[in-house]
Amino acid sequence: MNKELRDKLGVNENNPNDWFETLYSESNDSGSGVPWANMAPHPIFKNWIDQSSPLKKEQTALVIGCGLGDDAIELEAKGYNVTAFDVSESAIELCKKRFPNSKVKFITADLIEGITEWRHKFDFVLEIFTIQALPPKYEAILIKNVADFVAENGKLIVITEVQTQKRIYENGPPWLINADYINSFEQNGLKLISNTTNNETEVGEEIHLSVFKR
Ligand SMILES: C[S@@+](CC[C@H](N)C(=O)[O-])C[C@H]1O[C@@H](n2cnc3c(N)ncnc32)[C@H](O)[C@@H]1O
């Protein structure tokens, strides 16, 4: 993305959250103007969860950067006790408006700051396209904070687009991540169980679905 478009969107490396609130506050419950809004679960995640074994007992799930909430609703339908958060208050209001009968706890919170009371708390954590939505200088803290949410024996799913080119601020958003994100999660106490890749990307070279376990 060039500087002109970045400036138009209000993207700022030192206030990286603000433009999301602007975008969602100008949107509505049809997701107009939100480029990533599928208004349905992410198809790669949906395919993965439909093939997973049904839950034997209730488990907790956390959806990171939940946007308009469809992935959280999918997890609720599969029997999870779901918490979902986004840094944008307007996104969270739209989730509540779209799904008034859901028991999902939709919460405004900031992944860069982290949420200490959620440390090792969730059996299942889902991260789709949030790390790549934030400038490269936050990568280490984002990965640490995502990994921290995963409970003992819990699972993390990361869906992300990957590039071999070095991440630099001038090229984003999005700031596609490099494949060494896998090592970073492992250095934060998780172990890679599987990594599925395909080439049906929007901007990157590959799209990954990685499953980690604590
Ligand atoms: C590219 S969108 C992806 C949304 C959703 N996961 C999906 O796949 O449709 C990135 C999301 O992360 C949220 N986000 C950005 N910065 C965040 C932060 N610091 N903490 C929590 N959420 C954040 C944005 O508001 C946006 O909803």
From TrEMBL:
Keyword field: Methyltransferase, S-adenosyl-L-methionine, Transferase
Methyltransferase domain segment(s): 62-154
GO biological process: methylation
Signal sequence range: none
CDD domains (UniProt xref): AdoMet_MTases
EC number, UniProt record: 2.1.1.-
Top-level taxon: Bacteria
InterPro entries (UniProt xref): Methyltransf_25, SAM-dependent_MTases_sf
Pfam family, one: Methyltransf_25
Enzyme class, first EC level, given as a word: transferase
Membrane-spanning residues: none
Record flagged with keyword Plastid: no
GO molecular function, one term: methyltransferase activity
The name this protein goes by in its record: Class I SAM-dependent methyltransferase
